[in-house]
Amino acid sequence: MSARSTLDLSGWPAFDAGALPKPQRDAFLRRRTAIELYACGETVSTIEARTGLHRRQLYRLLDRCQAPHDDGRPFGWRAVVPYAHVSNYERTAGTSRSAVPTSSNGSRGGAAGAFAQLLRAYPTLARWIEHSVQAKRVTIRQTGTGDGLGLRLGGLKALHADFLRQCRSLGLGPTDYPLNTEQLGIRSLAATVRAQALRSFGRGACLAGATHLKGLPFKSDSPTATQYLDVVEFDGHRLDLRLKIVVRDPLGFEQAFEIEC
């Protein structure tokens, strides 16, 4: 049995392309069309001609879409989103000063993945960051940007200074990452803290200033929320509401469902 005949798009988690900026949305739709044509039995040459997608890129996308996600399902259409990461970056180079290359203007770069490598080498640092977030040493504030809404961390400067003291207490010196970089790892620390803060709805809400949370009823078969609006709760009182949900299936046909509350 060929891989094409076993390709089942119906089990792939959906993705709302309308949430993407136009350039990324166009790329997403072109990739999705190529995969749908492949699943329908079109020849690869025809797919290349209709979508402009090279066959090597098509096969790579198919592998990415069928890769397992942390939620137990395949990545599905989530892997088709431009710049989406299916697997975490694993740094292979060291983090000493000689391993962080210097550019022509004298600044240092090439330290991608160095922070994750640092936390793997020193688990106590990872635990310290987690405990700092749990202790509400940082706050989250939503801000407006030119590209939409963004998040700003409060208390990061003080946390970063304490983070550097933790690094030095572990024996890290001026030739070790992050002490051998111009910004001393503050941007990587901010990204890690932000991810920790938003790991759960309750933690993110508390850091944003919420004083009361109403949790969802726990069910063992409740879906796992991995993206914004994956799981929502409607709590209405004396509210008459009619909803119409339109879902487009892999073949392009629309299925409509009406709900009255």
Task: Describe the model.
By secondary structure, the protein is α+β, with helices and mostly antiparallel strands. The protein folds into 2 domains: 9-80, no CATH class; 97-207, no CATH class. Helix content is 34%, strand content 11%. It contains 8 helices and 4 strands. The chain has helices at 22-39, 44-51, 55-65, 114-121, 123-134, 156-169, 186-197, 201-207; strands at residues 139-145, 148-154, 242-248, 254-260. The protein has a two-stranded antiparallel ribbon. Strands 3-4 form a two-stranded antiparallel sheet. A hairpin with a 2-residue loop joins strand 1 (139-145) and strand 2 (148-154). Helix 5 packs across helix 7 (186-197). The longest helix has 18 residues, at 22-39. The chain is extended and about 60 Å long. Residues 97-110 have low confidence and may be disordered.
What are the low-pLDDT stretches, counting only 5+ consecutive residues below 50? 97-110
- Kindly state the percentage of residues in helix: 25-40%
Distance between the termini: 47 Å
The chain-level mean pLDDT equals: 76
Radius of gyration: 23 Å
Based on the model shown, name its key terms:
alpha+beta; 8 helices; 4 strands
Task: Describe how the helices and strands are arranged.
Elements: H1 22-39, H2 44-51, H3 55-65, H4 114-121, H5 123-134, E1 139-145, E2 148-154, H6 156-169, H7 186-197, H8 201-207, E3 242-248, E4 254-260
Antiparallel strand pairs: 1-2, 3-4
Helix pairs in contact: 1-2, 4-5, 5-7
